[in-house]
Specification:
The complex is a heterodimer of chains A (about 90) and B (about 550). Chain A contains three helices and four strands, in the order E-H-E-E-H-E-H. With about 90 residues, chain A is an alpha+beta fold. Chain B is α/β, with parallel strands linked by helices. The chains are: A alpha+beta (about 90), B alpha/beta (about 550). The interface between A and B is medium-sized, with 19 and 22 residues.
Chain lengths: ~90, ~550
């Protein structure tokens, strides 16, 4: 299990478009489970509705975890995605 | 041969099967004691169908409006596939032993409520997405055809009359023409038909019966006739007309890319009227030079609750971006009178055309107005957006509108949201009061646009919805044309431009009069752009006369 933390800069927070893209990205790593944590709530990044229901806003710190498969590659891709889109 | 006579309200001729619009029964009843596995299979099938529809929509959207617009549907497809959503439906099935429809609706309602309850305007607005997906799933479960037209080939659509919310749902690519029992030349369906450039006939009455459903027929809007089983001579005539129409259409293609200028060098802004972002495709196909009137009502008519700021922003932005820097004039909410929206809960009025409508609603309900203005200003960062206020009668109204704009700009400043501070503001000239006050009003705004249907209605005291006023409702009446000139003179004296965005703008018979008056802009249905361009390029503005203003006394 590897993880990194990220502070959201997008003014609307995790809205439908990036959430959808994130879920898609998470699904693309067949052997890697991607989790998304805000505070004490953790959801799978593939759970689009739950992900949006975290109500992540600009300024919130979130933690993204990866487990299984090529963890390094998944971590790098997710980190790049977060910086680019959120 | 069967011949039905009505009144042609949108030009053209077409041949195809008559199709009566079915209004489906959408009530859902809870049935218990169902075979859960069978219901699950039904849901799986409906889900598959829904996903395919959504991806097809996304593809279509991507071609027409780009990635951003397409992604809305792709996200919907992902929602549909979301484990929690599916689990919610299955849980309900298992615990209630009920029918698929009931389970889908119950789960959909639960998830929509979950989003609606979130303490975030953006997230709570996503409830609408969940409702939308749930509705699609339900439609597929119940065999309700989206777009309302269950046919593989394009049809002549028959109905009593169509409400704007009904026409919005229709798959336009399956419509050859409209045949209506009721309706009028200024009704919503007629306007839609003109935008699409297809024939429409209204007032066909009871002769247009459902017994004719599925029969092959012709619609000829020039004569106002629906013809079935034409005899040989009639058929020859119809075929000739259809051929001529096709040839003319081809000829008009040569007008694409040409400038809108008269022989003596007077340039005209030739813009288009549209009712929704999807109409932009027609504007582009017909080489319109801008949007002279974007009716924002569709946003309000298409939903059963007030459209959110974001939903409006996305629609305005889509059009502004698609027009690539060309002017896009968006008219603020113009409901009331013939366009009623249930959730506004308007009190019934004795004379709705003279009642609380258009800008009056906005000024009475600052929150509704503010939401729209915020969406408009936010969209102004993505193209050349201009804002137009309808049904103005007084200078104070315009001042109040401008104050509302200032307040919104200040909010956006504070939130650090980009917008164009120089967004042009204009008003509709459609009441006699606005004509009399034109000089004072012109001092306040950047442009005028004349709504000829309403100006005719209010000037001649003729209800535009009434079918039997006939010759009394005369947009060529010298009183209307004189009003137009008075407004134009006032506009020019104050150094602003004036356009026409009513149907009259496409009336080539009046083009010389408009040129003589000095009209700067004509905004017409996309299908009218190229024929009008051809006329403009043949005209000599300097030799046009104001004779039509004397019309009544000419004989």
């Amino acid at each position: 299990m590897k993880q990194f933390s990220y502070t959201i800069t997008d003014p609307i927070g995790i809205h439908a478009r990036p959430a959808g893209m994130l879920a898609q990205l998470a699904k693309s790593f067949a052997d890697t489970a991607v989790t998304f944590t805000k505070g004490d709530q953790t959801v799978k990044a593939t759970q689009l509705m739950k992900l949006m229901n975290l109500g992540v806003k600009a300024g919130d710190e979130v933690t993204i975890g990866v487990e299984g498969g090529d963890e390094d590659a998944a971590l790098a891709a997710l980190e790049a995605f977060m910086k680019e889109n959120l | 041969m069967i011949l039905l006579q009505g009144k042609g309200v949108s030009k053209g001729i077409a041949e195809g099967p008559l199709y009566f619009l079915q209004k489906p029964d959408t009530t859902i009843v809870k049935e218990t004691g169902k075979d859960i596995e069978a219901e699950k299979a039904r849901i799986a099938e409906a889900k598959e169908k829904s996903a395919a529809q959504l991806l097809a929509l996304a593809e279509k959207c991507r071609e027409e409006a780009g990635d951003d617009a397409a992604f809305v549907f792709e996200t919907h497809a992902m929602f549909l596939d979301d484990d929690d959503y599916v689990e919610g439906i299955n849980d309900c099935l298992a615990s209630e032993q009920c029918n698929a429809e009931y389970a889908v609706r119950t789960a959909g309602d639960t998830f929509a409520a979950m989003f609606a309850a979130m303490d975030d305007a953006y997230m709570s607005a996503r409830a609408a997405d969940i409702k939308d997906i749930t509705q699609r799933l339900l439609n597929n479960l119940m065999g309700i055809v989206e777009g309302g037209i269950d046919s593989d080939v394009p049809v002549i659509l028959c109905a009593d009359d169509l409400a704007p919310s009904e026409t919005l749902q229709l798959d336009k690519s399956l419509i050859l023409g409209f045949a209506l029992q009721g309706g009028s030349g200024t009704s919503h369906t007629a306007i839609l038909a003109r935008t699409m450039g297809i024939p429409a006939i209204c007032g066909l009455g009871d002769a247009l019966t459902e017994e004719l459903n599925g029969r092959e027929g012709w619609i000829d809007a020039e004569t106002g006739e629906i013809i079935l089983d034409p005899d040989e001579i009639t058929l020859k005539g119809l075929e000739m007309k259809a051929k001529k129409q096709a040839e003319l259409k081809e000829l008009m293609q040569t007008m694409i890319g040409q400038e809108d200028v008269t022989l003596d060098g007077k340039k005209i802004k030739l813009y288009c009227n549209i009712g929704s972002p999807e109409d932009v495709a027609a504007v582009k196909a017909n080489d319109g030079q801008g949007i002279g009137l974007f009716r924002s009502e569709f946003l309000y008519l298409a939903t059963d609750d007030y459209p959110t700021e974001d939903a409006q922003f996305e629609a305005y932005k889509a059009v502004a971006e698609a027009m690539e820097g060309k002017r896009v004039i968006i008219r603020t909410l113009d409901i009331g009178a013939d366009k009623q929206v249930d959730y506004f809960e308007m009190k019934p009025e004795e004379n709705p055309a003279l009642g609380v409508r258009a800008i009056r609603i906005c000024l009475n309900r600052p929150e509704v107005f503010r939401t729209q203005l915020r969406a408009l200003y936010r969209a102004s960062a993505y193209g050349k957006v201009a804002i137009m206020f309808p049904m103005i009668t007084s200078v104070w109204e315009v001042k109040e509108c401008k104050r509302a704009c200032q307040a919104v700009m200040k909010e956006l400043d504070e939130e650090g949201i980009p917008y164009n501070a120089d967004t042009e503001l204009g008003i509709m000239i459609e009441t006699p009061a606005s004509v009399f006050m034109a000089r004072d009003l012109a001092k306040e705004v950047d442009f005028f646009s004349v709504g000829t249907n309403d100006l005719t209605q209010y000037t001649l005291a003729c209800d535009r919805q009434a079918n039997d006023l006939g010759k009394f409702f005369d947009p060529h009446h010298p009183a209307v044309l004189r009003a137009l000139k008075q407004a134009a003179d006032a506009a020019h004296a104050e150094g602003i431009w004036i356009g026409i965005c009513g149907e009259l703008g496409a009336d080539t018979e009046l083009l010389p009069t408009f040129l003589a008056i000095g009209i700067d802009e004509l905004s017409v249905s996309p299908a009218s752009v190229l024929p009008l361009r051809a006329e403009i390029r043949k005209s000599i503005a300097g030799s046009c006369t104001l004779d039509a203003l004397e019309g009544e006394f000419a004989d």
